[in-house]
Structure formats: C-alpha cells, structure tokens
Amino acid sequence: xxxxxxxxxxxxxxxxxxxxxxxxxxxxxxxxxxxxxxxxxxxxxxxxxxxxxxxxxxxxxxxxxxxxxxxxxxxxxxxxxxxxxxxxxxxxxxxxxxxxxxxxxxxxxxxxxxxxxxxxxxxxxxxxxxxxxxxxxxxxxxxxxxxxxxxxxxxxxxxxxxxxxxxxxxxxxxxxxxxxxxxxxxxxxxxxxxxxxxxxxxxxxxxxxxxxxxxxxxxxxxxxxxxxxxxxxxxxxxxxxxxxxxxxxxxxxxxxxxxxxxxxxxxxxxxxxxxxxxxxxxxxxxxxxxxxxxxxxxxxxxxxxxxxxxxxxxxxxxxxxxxxxxxxxxxxxxxxxxxxxxxxxxxxxxxxxxxxxxxxxxxxxxxxxxxxxxxxxxxxxxxxxxxxxxxx
Length: 392
Known about the structure:
This protein is mainly alpha-helical. It has helices at residues 2-27, 31-50, 55-60, 69-97, 99-102, 106-125, 127-131, 135-159, 168-186, 196-208, 211-214, 216-224, 227-260, 265-285, 287-294, 301-309, 311-326, 330-354, 357-391. The radius of gyration is 20 Å and the shape is globular.
C-alpha cells in the first residue's frame, strides 16, 4: 500500500509547493505587480496543460517488453520541443497582456515557465518506472522536486527577494538528469519504430483539448478582465489544483487495472467524486489560514466558492477519462473535449463580457458537468455496442 500510494503522496507534495512559490509572490510583491505575478503564475500553468504532448500516457500504455531506449528517445524529444513551445507562449502572453504592471517581473515569469517545462519533461521520462511496477521510484522525482522547490522558496523569503527563484529550473534540470540516467540504464536496446510522433500526439491532442474547457476561463479572462480579477481566478484555481493531482494520479495508476478488469469505472468515479467533495470542504475551511500564509486575500471570495463546487465533478471526470483510455478510446475523449471546449469558450466570452469574474468562475462548473455527461455517454455507448456484439 505504501508503494502504490507513493506516487499520489509525492504528486500532492509537489503541487503543495505551489503554495510556497505563491507565498513568495504574495509576500515579496504588492499592488498591481503582485496581481500581475499571480496572474502570470496561473497563465504559465494553463499553457503547461496546453503543451502536454501526451508522452507520459503513451508510454504508460506500453507493455514492459515493448519499452526500449529507441522507443523512449523520440517520445522524450517530441515532448521536450512541445513543452518548450508552451513555455515560450506563456511568457509572450504574460509580457503582452500584463506588460505594464508586470515590469521587470517578466524575468520571474521566464523562470517559472522554464521550471514547469523541465518538470513536465521529467514526468515523461519517468513513465517507464510505473510500467515496470516501480511505483516508489516513479514517485522519487516528485519528492526530490518538492524538496528542492521548498528550499529555494525559503531562501527567497529569507533574503526578501524573488531572485533566488531563478534556481528553480536549475534544480529541475539536475533532478531530470538523474532520472534520465536511471531510465537509460534500465531500458534495453531495441529497434527504431516509425509513426511514434503520430501515436504520441493522439494522446496529446486528446489531453490538450481538455485545456479548451479547463483553461479557457483563465486565458480568455486574462484578456477581457482587469488584472486584479484575473489574479483572483488564478489564485483560486492554483489553490485548487494541488488537490486534483490525487484523482489524476489514482486514475492514471488505474488505467492498467481498468484494462485488466480488476476494478470498474463506476466505483472509481463515485469514489473520486466523494473525494472531491471532501477536498472542496477542506479547502473552504482552510481558506483563512491559506490567506495568511500566502499574504493574499481571496477577493471576491465567491470566485473560490464557485470553483470549489466544481471539484466533485472534476474528480469523477478523471475516472471516466481513464475508463476511455483503458479501452483505447482516445478519439472519443478528443471528440467530447472539443465539443465541451467549444461551448465553454463561447460561455466564457459571454460571462466575461456581461457577468464579471464570478460568472467566469461559474463556467468551470458548466465545463465539468458537460464533460461528465459526454464521457459517461461515450462509455455507455461502448458498453452497449459490446453487449450487442456478444448477443449476436
């Protein structure tokens, strides 16, 4: 149980380090610059979702005997290029949209974007460890990254400057190199495969399409709303994000078990949905403490309340997504995500233009509810087709 729970525990710990980075931004800046930095922190994370190539899920779908150095190299290369493009796009967005209040803080945005791109690359590199059942080693990178980020943030707070945060990408690079060497020694030499990029991107496009509904409220709001309102969205969404890694990791671990029929999609969805309800309640109760620690208040507080209401649906959606992946239904996930994304983009523009920041936050609930219906419908259709085939 400790071995199986290590990836979730490490992932949660790593996401919690967002709090210490946010604390640096909150305590070591003020006024419009503070709002711009917090907004940029959220935008960088949003572009990180957009720049997910699907490499980790592609590798996790492989059998141990099919993993080799020659299969890993093109996957990691592709993921690195896309992650770099996402980081660059995030910096350009922030420099253009928050230019005046951000000022010299654009250097910190570059640092945050670079660290996120490297962390993303590590998640792809370490995937073979989970395929081989080495869950505890798989979790090791997150434990090391979390420790390094906390140390850097503490130094930054101690000296009263954001400059020490420049060490974040350096720490990620060192840890990534360690795990690359571990994986390289573990994997055998194999034959070069063709069409790798196409297969990887089939997972990546399906995953990145989720950004249409999960990240468009923040990215569209960044253009249409005042920077203080964007900061409220960014702060609330980043506070909630660490809790999402639990269902994301559990659902990821469940893919091989769902494929083998060891567990069912419905029990997994109900369990994760209940966990989301508990997480939302806990975050609401801890809100005053979080405000003190970060040095930033949730204003307006209804933004946080509305986003927390979407958590049970979001947690359950992770289970349904894994159910589709376990059945090889990547295209179905893509279609559902695109349909939901189109609706959410239109709803976000309307909400930002007429209803303000709370209305934009409410779009997150709409997105997760529509996704739940779409993913559930796809799974039910597949089950019906299978029953009809067996009956005939």
